[in-house]
Design brief:
The structure holds two protein chains of two kinds.
Chain A lengths: L3 E3 L4 E4 L4 E7 L4 E9 L6 E7 L2 E5 L2 E6 L4 E6 L8 E9 L7 E2 L3 E6 L1
Parallel strand pairs in A: 2-11
Antiparallel strand pairs in A: 1-3, 3-8, 4-5, 4-9, 6-7, 7-8, 9-10, 9-11
Chain B lengths: L4 E3 L2 E4 L5 E6 L6 E7 L6 E7 L2 E5 L6 E5 L5 E5 L8 E8 L9 E2 L3 E5 L1
Classes of the chains: A mainly beta, B mainly beta.
Chain lengths: 112, 114
């Protein structure tokens, strides 16, 4: 069983829709939870991060972490064609480490 | 600021050959991590370099080795290439004090092993 599970999609939505992206994980030691966006032929870029449980909002993006269920989500409101990309969840434990454990990524297409 | 740069952008090798990939970190960053991203998969951590030493390693064989230079740039070497080594190799730089929240990824080097 993988430490981080993510539905690879693809997910296709109309412009303006609310998008929900999710990951589950098995390692209870994870403390930092991140979402990266990766455009085709580019490296991942950090969108949002959350420490421990809770919600975090940044513009049209909201990240949620439920440590009791080992479940994290990213919501995108008013989705735009420019949001079309692969979204990767990533996690790490505490302490001095840069090692991130990534999900497989979900390919999102927002149709104009 | 050029951000994280990697070279070459694409590379084709044959099985058994050796390859060297290069990374220049974002200005001011002192830590370099390397990841392998196979097609349709998320990046997998290979190793991290800080102060010219390997500090942490993922589940990769010894065929994968690296180096960090005094100017913080880094190389990833892969020996005895296998078909399964075909992937996008990503370099990420960060500040050791800031951890992965300061981590920036480069565009990657796409390696094809025939």
């Amino acid at each position: 069983q993988k430490e981080v599970e993510q539905d690879p999609g693809p997910l296709s939505v109309p412009e303006g829709a609310i998008v929900s992206l999710n990951c589950t994980y098995s390692n209870s030691a994870f403390q930092y939870f991140m979402w990266y966006r990766q455009y085709s032929r580019k490296g991942p870029e950090l969108l949002m991060y959350t420490y421990s449980s809770g919600n975090k909002e940044d513009g049209r993006f909201t990240a949620q972490v439920d440590k009791s269920s080992k479940y994290i989500s990213l919501f995108i409101r008013d989705s735009q064609p420019s949001d079309s990309a692969t979204y990767l969840c990533a996690m790490r434990g505490g302490g001095a480490t840069n090692k991130l454990i990534f999900g497989t990524g979900t390919l999102l297409a927002v149709q104009p | 600021d050029a951000g994280v740069t990697q070279s070459p952008t694409h590379l084709i090798k044959t099985r058994g050959q050796q390859v060297t990939l290069r990374c220049s970190p974002k200005s001011g960053h002192d830590t370099v991590s390397w990841y392998q991203q196979a097609l349709g998969q998320g990046p997998q951590f290979i190793f991290q370099y800080y102060e010219e030493e390997e500090r942490q390693r993922g589940n990769f064989p010894d065929r994968f080795s690296g180096h960090q230079f005094p100017n913080y740039s880094s190389e990833l070497n892969v020996n005895a290439l296998l078909l399964g080594d075909s992937a996008l190799y990503l370099c990420a730089s960060s500040l050791v004090a800031g951890g992965p929240l300061t981590q920036y990824f480069g565009p990657g080097t796409r390696l094809l092993v025939l």
